[in-house]
TrEMBL record:
Protein name in UniProt: Calcineurin-like phosphoesterase domain-containing protein
Gene3D superfamilies associated with the record: 3.60.21.10
Top-level taxon in the UniProt lineage: Bacteria
PANTHER family with a match to the protein in the record: METALLOPHOSPHOESTERASE (PTHR42850), ZINC-DEPENDENT ENDOPOLYPHOSPHATASE (PTHR42850:SF4)
Domain Calcineurin-like phosphoesterase: 55-230
Species of origin: Comamonas serinivorans
Length: 277
């Protein structure tokens, strides 16, 4: 295997983009580098006693398509809740609407690698290894300074992981990976290491290893784990880990809305089933 092919394969395994600009590894220099300060690394959410809970994969600024998918399952904002696995922004046409969604009391999200890169760009200290604008981040430059600041504040407040109580136990959401196959590790992360995709903290947002190696080992100390980041053709389960980014942000993809109680995609509500009995 040629060296370039070998490198390319490793980048795929690590979930690292093929087009990398700037230095790698980033110089520690980045003494001025802002440290991500999620409100809390792991956010714990009590059970929903009034309605249903769903998880959705990467949204990437395709909020209209997401809304259509929610309509199809009869999502009720009065009692249902939606948990996103991160990558709310970049690539799609409506990234600027992210603030409106994050304002909704029924919408929650963890931080994906794109949310992290957008935050860094918005505070004027771009994540140096990746050219964020070429990864779908142009939308930020169209915003005013005030709007960019508001986006930065909201993205910075996203937790790295969310735990939702269900009748079967805690279900955890983290964008790409759970380091060490142990959910408890998420509470020991050093968020200052987020600039290195190989660090435990970085793997949470960048790793594609499990899906690409079909690793079906279980993540300990959690009932089930939900990931996005790695786009799959259909809902993929490996051990107790669910991959649900079915490319709703792509022309031929679709949004999977995973019912957290059943750990299965939500059924569409047909017109006839919506009619009163
Ligand atoms: Mn991602």
């Amino acid at each position: 295997m040629k060296l370039s092919q070998s490198l390319s394969r490793w980048r795929l395994l690590l979930g690292w983009p093929h087009r990398v600009s700037g230095r790698w590894p980033p110089a520690s220099a980045d003494a001025a580098q802002p440290v991500y300060s999620a409100g809390q690394a792991v956010q714990r959410i009590p059970a929903n006693i009034r309605g249903r809970d769903f998880a959705v994969g990467d949204i990437h600024g395709c909020f209209d398509e997401l809304q259509a998918a929610l309509n199809e399952i009869g999502f009720d904002t009065q009692c249902d809740r939606l948990f996103a696995v991160g990558d709310l922004v970049d690539r799609g046409p409506q990234s600027h609407e992210v603030l409106a969604w994050l304002d909704e009391p029924w919408f929650f999200s963890v931080c994906g690698n794109h949310d992290y890169m957008a935050w860094r760009a918005a505070v004027g200290q771009p994540f140096s290894p990746v050219d964020h604008r070429r990864q779908g981040g142009e939308w930020l430059s169209a915003l005013s300074a005030t709007e960019r600041e508001a986006v930065a504040q909201r993205l910075q407040a996203l937790p790295l992981a969310i735990e939702v109580a269900t009748s079967a136990g805690w279900v955890g959401l983290v964008h790409a990976s759970c380091p060490g196959n142990d959910w408890h590790e998420l509470r020991r992360l050093n968020l200052a290491e987020l600039d290195s995709p190989h660090s435990d903290a970085g793997q949470c947002m960048w790793s594609t290893r499990r899906a690409l190696t079909a690793d079906s080992s279980r993540v300990r100390n959690i009932h089930a784990v939900i990931h996005g980041h790695t786009t799959v053709g259909r809902h993929l389960v490996l051990g107790n880990v669910h991959f649900i980014d079915t490319g709703g942000w792509r022309p031929h993809g679709y949004f999977t809305l995973l019912d957290l109680e059943r750990l299965a995609p939500a059924a569409r509500v047909t017109r006839s089933s919506m009619l009163p009995a």
